[in-house]
Amino acid sequence: MTTTETETATHCPYCALQCGMNLVPRNGLLTVAPRPDFPTNKGGLCQKGWTAADLLAHPERLRTPLVRDRKCGDLRPATWDEALDRIADEFTRVQERYGRDAVGVFGGGGLTNEKAYLLGKFARVGLRTANIDYNGRFCMASAAAAGIKAFGLDRGLPFPLEDIPGAEAILLVGGNPGETMPPVMQYFDEQRRRGGSLIVADPRKTPTAQAAALHLQLTPGTDAALAHGLLHIALRDGLVDHDFIAARTTGFETLRRVVASYWPDRVERMTGVPVAQLQEAARRLGEARTAMILSARGPEQQSRGVDNTLAFINLALALGKAGRPHCGWGTITGQGNGQGGREHGQKADQLPGYRKIDNPEHRAHVAAVWGVPEAEIPGPGRSAYELLDAMGTDDGVRALLVMGSNVVVSAPRAGHVEERLRALDFLVVADLFVSETAALADVVLPSAQWAEEEGTMTNLEGRVLLRRRAAPPPEGVRTDAEILNALAGRLGRGHLFTDDPRAIFDELRRASAGGAADYSGITYERIAREDGVFWPCPGDGHPGTPRLFLERFATEDGRARFHAVAYRPAHEEPDDEFPLYLTTGRVMAQYQSGTQTRRVAALRDAAPRGFVEIHPTTAQAFGIADGETVCVATRRGDATVSARLTPTIRPDTLFMPFHWAGRARANLLTNPALDPASRMPEFKVCAARLGRRSES
Ligand code: SF4
Q1: Following DSSP, what letter does each residue of 7-54 receive, concatenated?
Q2: Whose CA is nearest to atom 2 of ligand 1?
Q3: What pLDDT score does 5 carry?
Q4: Ligand 1, closest atom to CA 18?
């Protein structure tokens, strides 16, 4: 811990690596300095982290609430009292007219644990609505559901990053940390220096894939077929660990029958990955003494995302590469608090501590902590897209509070979501800037930034970290906790709330005690002293749990579960009308919906506008030149972006990053078909058409 009078040790506000950094005052502003002693990033930061403090004094920053003028219809500055009174009045009016569930809450995977916890409590106790969900549903939901099904517990990585170099082979499926999370690559670099091999499965030859020993350039949406094909070869070639299967798992025989038909040349036809590469990958993973399989949004953000993820977990289990040091399946979490955000109650079906909202014992425990009768806690609400899709309809929400999310840019089928937002009776957005979603709101509340408030974040390893306050918020700006506390007061529930982050965290600890994600032994002081504490940490004397599953898995009988999932094609495959696959993702210099990073000059210069990657052969067939403005269309709509020709993408596939607004929005195109278990939309694959702008 290196906080001094002149510098504050904290963490980057963006992705799930949560790089340690120092904030140093210089000429009246805070600037970012490296924090080489922090154990995860070891001083490394990407361009987003280096420039994160640029937004603290940004001229476009909101410094006063805005309310929509009833006469002229424009947003105008207002006092906090006027804005909060209007919200409380409108929420009350809507609930009296349409019922409690007619007011919804939409949170974000970047909120601290305290804010995620408080937002979940505000929905259930302040508003007493069932309808709360968050944008993490668009990020981690499939991996979370698969982890619970297979291991009985969802923690992104069941081991610390420091274990990665000890894996002799790693298969990374549908992730590009070399570009989106560069400091984490030091662990993969070290793994290769020690003689290990990295295999990357991705439709694009990304910077991460270029660094790999083997790149499996699969057809979008064929992930489960790839996993089954690798397991088929492993069985055929005697690479499966039958002792491990017998001792620590159940359900293998049914799976064996499923994968029997995934013979290599059939899998080559399904996935586009040559048989020789399939065999090479299976051999590297199977012969290694230690191996990891890591997935990311590629296989997970699909309407079969849970099955895809389970198929790779099956492979790890069958090879005996789980529940042992330097082995295991894990997911590379995306959003800053994607992990903690899904543990503490802003998901439609969850209560804090990973408790379930439909479990009577879980409800009773949380109700006692909250000081309300158990019967007052509502049941499960709608998942994120279902909540957005039904906005303004007879049985949907009529009013919505959005905190830390910009769904006009980040939700699938974004044009439709924008229409539904306009159909609401009343929309409130709390944000740092007038985001594209805030621009539609009836009330906009200016929120404090990460460096202006205390709180905890849980990184991709399950390590709970301390975000320290380096400066007070500017005059006129309030923290999200202050906002929720003030609203709860106006709704007559103020006695059940506090806006003090430490008091909220203490309450969270009690609410999580005994739950799957038990934080009861974690304190701010311990986090500071130990550079983070891994959950579960049940009690003051507990050391925390960096490595899960070494003795037993978290299922009732301690055994991991195989799942005999079948490969099914994507919800929408290319056809005559839409002959190409479209996949979406991120670039290095932008983050998520771009509300923040599009306002940082250096990042805007590095990645100024939306584009579509096209293979040169495909571009030639469509008569498209590099840099030309083109139209990409799907059954949901069309977008206008510039063409970027690259041989690193499959000829049958287009790639668009999703950070930009307006006509460049990739999510105008994406398919909201949902995974039946995780309710994850199919961001990663749909059928698309390409045209020159003049023809569109
Ligand atoms: Fe921030 Fe992630 Fe970049 Fe680290 S890798 S500096 S946490 S955006």
Answers
A1: -EEEE-SSSTT--EEEEEEETTEEEEEE-TT-TTTTT---HHHHTGGG
A2: 15
A3: 60
A4: 7
**pLDDT at residue 692, as a whole number:** 83
For 633, phi then psi, to 5°, come to: -125, 145
Instruction: Give me the domain span that covers residue 241.
Output: 146-330
Q: What is the pLDDT of residue 2?
A: 47
For the chain, what is the domain count? Answer: 3
Which residue has a Cα nearest atom 6 of ligand 1?
Answer: 49
Nearest residue to 482 (alpha-carbon basis) of 55, 65, 50: 65
Question: What value does the mean pLDDT take over residues 567-596?
Answer: 94
DSSP-assigned letters across all residues of 442-481: SEEEEBP-GGGS-EEEE-TTSEEEEEPP-SPPPTT-B-HH
Q: Is the pLDDT of residue 233 over 80?
A: yes
Q: Evaluate if residue 696 carries a pLDDT over 80.
A: no
Q: Quick one: average pLDDT of 308-317?
A: 98
Q: Tell me whether residue 89 is in a domain.
A: yes
Phi, psi of 366 (to 5 degrees): -70, -40
> How many whole angstroms separate alpha carbon 424 and alpha carbon 104?
11
Residue 377 sits in the same domain as residue 523 = yes
pLDDT one-digit tens code per residue, 382-392: 999 999 999 99
CA of 15 to the centre of ligand 1 (A): 5
For position 150, which CATH number holds? Answer: 3.40.228.10
Average pLDDT, the chain: 96
